[in-house]
Amino acid sequence: MGRPRSFLDSMRVEVAKKAHGCKHNEAHTIAAGDKRLSVAAGMSRENYCVPCALEFLERDVASIKSTMAELRGPM
Q: Which domain range does residue 35 map to?
């Protein structure tokens, strides 16, 4: 049996080394020293500010719970 796979391996929380904009909303600035969510996107990474990241993650948690309920339910 293989090692259990995680669909979350492409994400990690990092501390920004320099200031830059959020990938979702360029009006949101990620300052040097701020936490950010970094997500693998092909050979590069996309970085999101905390408010945008939390919004995406909360929506994804709801979607994952719905998918789990569908898998557990009757055929």
A: 11-72
Summarised one tens digit per residue, pLDDT across range 7-34 is 788 999 999 999 999 999 999 999 999 9
- Count of domains observed in the chain: 1
Cα–Cα distance between 30 and 2 in angstroms, integer?
Answer: 39
Question: Residue 6: inside a domain, yes or no?
Answer: no
Considering the entire predicted model, what is its pTM? Answer: 0.82
Supply the DSSP string of 6-62, one letter for each residue: -TTTTEEEEE-SS-EE-SS-TTSEE-TT-EEEEEEETTEEEEE-HHHHHHHHHHHHH
Report whether pLDDT(1) > 70. no
The CA-based diameter of the chain, rounded to the nearest angstrom, is 51
